[in-house]
Design a protein that fits this description.
Elements (H helix, E strand, L loop, with lengths): L1 H13 L4 E3 L8 E3 L2 H18 L9 H17 L3 H8 L1 H21 L2 H6 L2 H26 L5 H10 L5 H10 L6 H27 L7 H34 L5 H21 L4 H11 L12 H7 L6 H16 L1 H23 L9 H22 L6 H10 L4 H13 L5 H29 L5
Antiparallel strand pairs: 1-2
Helix pairs in contact: 2-3, 2-4, 2-16, 3-4, 3-16, 5-13, 5-16, 7-8, 7-10, 7-17, 8-10, 8-19, 9-10, 9-20, 10-11, 10-18, 11-12, 11-13, 12-13, 14-15, 17-18, 17-20, 18-20, 19-20
Length: 460
């Protein structure tokens, strides 16, 4: 019997495009599942994203290349390439993209250490609050009523929410390339951007809940605000209590890297589920899971190969040993983060390409769309630059802080994707938000470099 079951299993593995009969016995109808075409569609999306990475050679973030690759695919579909329509309608590709979005927020949470949030100081908090409030108010209550008066209040709120994001990854990469990561302005930006992410996700939770059909009222908004903050705070508190015992329990089963990765991703998935039970987006739960997990929870699991190799080295000079120990600590502290990022290299680009695919390419042929996007982008830039005035230091430092918070990048795309998936954003509004993300992300890095050269001439 076992051999027969094994043969049947191997047959279905080898020939997945087979007919599965209904198990109810009431119908002889067969359901054909063609996995081959699904695999081909996933390959197209993956390779499109990697081809889009070519723009990194000219100093443009890879995320924009992946987004533009999706838009190019949408254009090919618009001009008659049929498989593009199948990719856009594929529930499997949509699932992989959603998993990529969850991994993205999980990795952002892993990078956003709680102790760093608490030590950035009151100044970074003020910068973040202004950087969230001004763009949101401008987008939801000024620009949306002017350009989209016929759209719903929820759509107006989503436009405002999409403008609050800050892509800390893009800004940090510019700081690192210019060797100014340790400056006061850079530390203010990095701290404010982390707080910005938390506040932005609270805003996203509120507008997403309102999009479910609830009538907008001050009482409802306050209730959603309390629930969102309570979920994030409660997740971190409960997770910090139970994460270590759970890790210890699974460590008794196995200490390999496979268990380490599975445990980390399971935390993200479970917290995503819990967030949905609270009426929030699953990505908010993944972010909370990233915040609470620390390397200490995985300390007794197997180390990475590079750490094992470094520990085996012998040194005569104390300085060489100290330098090597710093490298070992760095890899130990970021190992889980690195493992998740490696998995993300496959799934996260699918999310960005799929987001680009959701654009109705026909709407991009409307010239007025670009006028609207440019005007909204101007307000998006002004909102962040004004927030920089609250930072400490000279006017150049304040301007550097403000401009460094301008790129919306991957977080802005995530907000737009959520609004589209909820059916709140119209085709035109979704396209405009994507264009605003592209404009602000293209515009910011060269301006950041120029201002940094004036602010810290001795360092660059």
């Amino acid at each position: 019997m076992f051999k027969k079951s094994l043969v049947i299993s191997l047959f279905f593995v080898a020939f997945p495009s087979v007919a599965f009969a209904s198990s109810s016995g009431e119908s002889s109808e067969h359901h054909i599942i063609h996995f081959g075409i699904v695999f081909a569609m996933l390959a197209i999306v993956l390779m499109a994203g990697k081809v889009g990475n070519v723009i990194e050679r000219i100093g443009i973030p890879a995320v924009l290349g992946e987004l533009l690759a999706g838009i190019v695919l949408a254009a090919l579909g618009y001009f008659g390439l049929n498989i593009v329509g199948e990719i856009q309608a594929s529930s499997f590709i949509a699932f992989v993209a959603s998993f990529g979005a969850l991994l993205l927020l999980f990795s952002i949470g892993l990078e956003s250490k709680l102790n760093e949030i608490t030590k950035v100081g009151f100044n970074a908090l003020i910068v973040a609050l202004i950087g969230v409030a001004l763009p949101f108010i401008a987008g939801a209550f000024l620009l949306a009523p002017i350009f989209y008066a016929h759209e719903s209040t929820n759509a107006h709120l989503f436009l405002g929410a999409s403008l609050v994001a800050t892509s800390v990854g893009i800004t940090a990469s510019v700081f690192k390339s210019m060797n100014i990561l340790k400056t006061r302005a850079a530390q203010t930006v990095l701290g404010a951007a982390v707080i910005d992410d938390v506040l932005g996700l609270v805003v996203l939770a509120i507008v997403s809940a309102l999009a479910s059909g609830s009538e907008v009222s001050s009482g409802l908004i306050i209730g959603l605000l309390v629930k969102s903050i309570a979920f994030l705070a409660g997740s971190v508190i409960l997770g910090s209590v139970f994460a270590k015992p759970i890790s210890k329990m699974f460590r008794k089963i196995h200490t390999g890297l496979g268990m380490k990765v599975a445990l980390a991703i399971s935390f993200a998935l479970v917290f995503g589920y819990l967030a949905e039970l609270f009426g929030l987006e699953p990505i908010i739960g993944a972010f909370a899971a990233g915040l609470l997990l620390e390397e200490v929870h995985f300390r007794d699991f197997d180390e990475s190969e590079v750490v094992k190799d470094l520990k085996s080295l012998e040194f005569k000079a104390p300085k060489d040993r100290e330098k090597t120990l710093r490298i070992i600590n760095k890899h130990q502290e970021s190992h889980v983060e690195d493992l998740i990022n490696n998995i993300g290299l496959i799934f996260i680009p699918v999310f960005f390409v799929y987001t680009g695919l959701q654009i109705d390419f026909g709407s991009l042929l409307n010239p007025s769309l670009y006028v609207t996007a440019v005007i909204i982008s101007i307000f998006a830039v002004i909102g962040k630059v004004v927030a920089g005035i609250a930072a400490k230091g000279s006017w150049n430092e304040k301007l550097l802080v403000g401009m460094s918070m301008v790129p919306r990048g991957e977080v802005g795309l995530l907000f737009a994707a959520v609004g589209k998936s909820l059916g709140v954003l119209s085709t035109e509004m979704f396209s405009v938000i994507i264009l605003v993300v592209i404009i602000t992300t293209f515009l910011a890095p060269p301006l950041i470099k120029k201002i940094a050269q004036r602010t810290y001439p001795e360092k660059v």
